[in-house]
Fold these 2 entries.
Entry 1:
Amino acid sequence: MTRSEELFARAQKVIPGGVNSPVRAFKAVGGTPRFVERAEGCRFRDADGRWYIDYVGSWGPMIHGHAFPPVIEAIHKAATRGTSYGAPCEGEVELAERVIRLMPSIEKVRFVSSGTEATMSALRVARGFTGRRKVVKFEGCYHGHADLLLVSAGSGVATLGIPGSPGVPEGTVGDTIVVRYNDVAALEAVAEEHGADLAAVIVEPVVGNMGCVAPNPGYLEALRAITARVGSLLIFDEVMTGFRVARGGAQELYGIKPDLTCLGKIIGGGLPVGAYGGRADVMDCVAPVGPVYQAGTLSGNPLAMAAGCAALDALEADGFYERLEALSARLEAGLRRAAERASGPVTLQRVGSMITAFFGPGPIVDWPSAKACDTARFGRFFNAMLNRGIYLPPAQFEAAFVSIAHTEAEIDATVDAAAEAFATA
Ligand SMILES: *Cc1c(COP(=O)(O)O)cnc(C)c1O
């Protein structure tokens, strides 16, 4: 028995499924999840002393690699001054100023402790601001596990084939309208029928949670135009894409200005941070300025704020995104060559440092085309890569992430492993 197997057996006795977030359990790919003992740069070591090249990066936050020294130092320094105050501190102002500088559509921002809280709160504010009830989300997009958004969701919900979730009352999702992604006509139809009741449209501007799916040319422009026309708010859920696909997120990459933006992952440098922000007139609905209530005991936590500031500061380094793009393009090109050895179709899709190998014919543009992929082939590929020391997201409907800590040597080793792994799938 390996140490990971031992720990997993113990974990399953005291934690549902042995994990604190479902996709970690490897249910979609089989085998035992690796218990991580330490992580450094683009690698982590499991409880059995084996090192892996990591393309999960804690599901997105680790754009600088693990144990990035400036972040660790910032946390250490902050910790010596106390770990939580429940009173305002300078770190909150520092991080807010950075976020607003990097994302000009955000005029005011509120920090929370997770992406889930960010999307949940943004929708509450959108409903409070507009006085409307209905919300549009897109099939296969994942916005965290808040009740009203847990319908036709991507990520682990998709992987486990859960249509929605027991425990989410029909009344809670009764005002959530699910529309196909990349389908302008479908949203037009909803706007026609429900426009006057529509508080917000929430979207992953580049989807990561059904695997990496880019918006069709003109699609985000259409979302912007339709929401403006019916007077509903456009919410970009950039919890994954923020500071990832470009320094200013997908909104910078595609030149679209949403009314509200949700952030998470990278913004906390690996500590639990989420944020929502946008137009000042909308954000001023939030208590204590306005009547929409939203609060958090640990919100604006000084350790998390310090980690976030250090992480964002490092993104400002000259050539950061150019280097990340070059590494990611090298990986894509290598995987494309390697995939020729696969037994069936493989569709590689990438936006910046987010990449997915779909085991099916492309292009993958929405949830029906993603869902049609062969998850059994993906599972064989995943395990073949794992056996060769390459750690990919353990499910087909997820994006892999390249970090700035990956080097050409590690990318090339990954491509070499993939040439063998694709041959098994
Ligand atoms: C990860 C993610 C969330 C949820 O964030 P948590 O911190 O896990 O609650 C929300 N939206 C998107 C797009 C995400 O990728």
Entry 2:
Amino acid sequence: MSEPLIYELSKPGRKGIVMPEPDVPTYELPAELLRKTGSVPLPEVSQIDVTRHFTRLSQRNMSIDTNLYPLGSCTMKYNPRINEDMARLPGFAMLHPLQDTSTAQGALSLMYELQTMLAEIAGFAAVSLQPAAGAHGELTGILMMRAYHRDRGDHNRTRMLIPDSAHGTNPASSAMAGLQVVEIPSDTRGNVDLEALRAQLDDTVCGLMITNPNTLGMFEEHIEEVVNLVHAAGGLVYGDGANMNALLGIAKPGEIGFDVMHYNLHKTFSTPHGGGGPGSGPVAVAKHLADFLPGPIVQVKSSPDHTVFEWHMPVKSIGRMRAFWGNFGMLVRAYTYIRVHGEEGLRAVSQNAVLNANYIQARVKHIYPVPQGERYCMHEFVAQGKFADAPGIRALDVAKRLMDYNFHPPTNYFPLIVPEALMIEPTETESKETLDSFVEALLSIAEEAHTNPALVKDAPHTAPMRRLDEVRAAKELVLCCRLDLAETGD
Ligand SMILES: *Cc1c(COP(=O)(O)O)cnc(C)c1O
């Protein structure tokens, strides 16, 4: 099934919009700015052509608005529509980032409150809202850790310890910050191997980057000991907060002793996550790192008769990590989500997220091996898409076949330490009926793997595209729908 390109729908003279009368003085463009060759090769199409074209394309995507999206580690939770209403309030949506702060006090106060709420949620002293994604928050946090050691005259701390269950961004961010990455193995219960950790700790360790619960969906059973060991060696502990959906209102990484952590507002706090849209990865720090935060951050100046919010550069700041003030629209959405839920509501979010994941795990683990299946999981768990008596079937086949059952595939082949991994995170927003249908689909696919393996191997059968050559797509990246345009630079 091939969709025409929007250019192929073009008919000379056809129009989709009427330009409004200009409300500013008209102005002759200087000759040197005028186009020298031909007309702009834009499609000439009617409004209904455009609407139908893009609506059809959008319907080919699986999304959280159409299907369960149990993409482990990514927390694809429903994005409540009230977030969108708030982000579209003209007072927020029409702000200009260069506007004088005296005319944007509402926006600054929202950012100040969000900084404060995020600090409270995970038990930290201060927050910067600048980073634009989790990975960007990681780089920010690591640069702060380095700055902290250097500030104390401790120049030899060049190694970052990272458990083998970590997300790929952790070693990537560490390497980008100029550190040497040292992998720490996990033990058989899915925890950091304490002996292996001890063996690496010395005065060259910048710190440990740890995800808790980790990407196996396991809460680190010795987390306090891990933190104490790293601190005793003079290192700092970086918390990858991508899995905060398991801990809201239940445990605070800052109180456990983490020194710095990022949040993924597009995971835990329900801001939109797909389509390459902007993310947001604020970083939170304990007191001893607060002076190093990237700035400016919002501070409040109160006098008896009025309160003023203003920008403030922390004294030893690592500098700016992003232009302007972060992805402000995302900050409004996350703020709304937190305010709508309140403290009790956020706790219920995590409790239900953990309950839903355990429900699925309990119902499938006799069919799909779960290496850590003797423990309760947190908000996600890792099963294996392999069957002893159907050796031809792999996790990828199960994932693709799930699309025929109208489910987005779970994360697969990650974490790397579990062969044929299927990492399942249902989130709290799914009903028991939806969870049951998903379980039934997984069980049917396991049945098919034995009775009709070709059906599973050749899946998906119903999707508009079959299996893609992902390596080729990544190596020969074509982002322009007309190669002739890409070549002329038009
Ligand atoms: C998603 C994720 C990240 C990276 O976050 P982005 O916002 O995608 O950059 C890092 N670590 C873990 C465990 C994650 O799940």
